[in-house]
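User: For a reading group we're discussing how well predicted structures match intuition. Take Beta-xylanase. Before you show the prediction, I'll give you the sequence so everyone sees exactly what went in.
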Amino acid sequence: MRFRPALAVAAGLLAAAAAALPVSPASAAEPTLGELAAAKGRYFGSATDNPELSDAPYVSILSSEFTSITPGNAMKWESTEPQRGRFDFAKGDEIVELAQRNGQQVRGHTLVWHSQLPSWVSDGGFSAEELRSILRNHVTTVASHYKGKVVHWDVVNEPLNEDGTLRDTVFSRTLGESYIAEALRAARAADPDAKLYINDYNIDGIGAKSDGMYRLVKSLKEQGVPLDGVGFQGHLALQYGFPSRMQENLQRFADLGLDVAITELDIRMQLPADSAKLATQAAWYSDVTKACLAVSRCVGITIWDFTDKYSWIPDVFPGEGAALPWDENLRPKPAYDALRVALGGDPDGGEPEPPASCKVAYSVGSRWDTGFTANVTITNTGDSAINGWTLVFDLPAGQRVSQGWGAQWSQSGTTVTAENAPWNGTLAPGESTSIGFNGTHTGEDGRPTAFTLNGTSCTAA
Ligand code: G3I
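Assistant: Thanks. Here is the predicted 3D structure of Beta-xylanase, as structure tokens, for the group to look at:
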């Protein structure tokens, strides 16, 4: 793994949010996440926050690796209009200017949110008429200030409850659901070229909350309200499982004529991190990326800061963390390589792969009309013991694991993950373990050809 020196992305490279862009030849030997995503017609971004900008090694990576930046806090209402009518754009401007110097685009976050909302708004006791005017004025003033500088706006953030109903906030209580349309219309009038988004968490897979979002945005589209996209925050946690049918979920929103974007991706775990958890995390980063790339209207991915050094997770979820692709010392983790590979790049920037220290034999024991049984033998071919393993491979489309043994099995899209059982996690050099599963198929007879164990490629036997 090599670090790149700070490298300003060619000015103008990212003028269009989702245009297919060539990889810069100067850096083709080791393209960044942003360049790899650009080659797929997407952006790859990171959130950042003003206090972090005095950390030079951090800024070097922020400036070179990403093609989009989202201010994590600087454009929220408490920052931009802390007192009624007194606007302050200093922090937001600092981040926009950094992005402009680097040729990066900016996702604006966020115009209307119930959190980080100054008490003069939340506790103001305003009538519907007053609050509508306050909301319009805020959206208009902030979106006008950043006109032409912000490519996407999260106009409304987190409007829904977990059951998909409208969240109770000062805005919904006073104005009903209409506050959402008000905000979107004001944003469109202020900056007609910015893509306008509604953004929320726990809508990444299909479920009650994403169903609620689907109903909301469908109804807004039917009413002709200006809405261009839906942001799927993607705050995932290993202990809660991968979102159900993520690609299908993104696709159903795209089918409404909306862009979709992964806007705040991070994948936390219960601490301490270990190699098995980091391998699963890497597989999930890859799966989210593949889900986005499989949906033509998925325009890009933003991670919610890029290093564990500045993640919001440990403050809010004590005992959890290690959620981002770079560790606290700004060193890339397995998730970084997984992202590169999912975006079509070579792991380790094209450096030769280390020799495989595992071998995987996959065989189909029996097969019938709709199902099959697969046996998988994993062998430690390295010189040291493996303590805890996660095997990852892709099944051909149409095949699904229905029930497995010898490991904890899960599947997301085509990607299958098998984590060791308590009794076969340790494999001494030369030792093997056999696991397997019953699967379903829809006619195809293919089988997986590539396997990774704890993020390292294995020889396929
Ligand atoms: O600015 C004050 C500082 O003066 C004070 O000394 C310090 C003491 O704790 O707090 C600072 O404010 C913190 C602020 O971030 C800026 O760093 C707040 O305590 C802290 O709560 C706030 O957290 C932010 C969080 O939103 C608030 O909900 C995170 O940085 C930010 O990453 C996070 O982002 C949200 C998205 O906007 C929406 N989706 C979820 C996501 C994660 O919570």
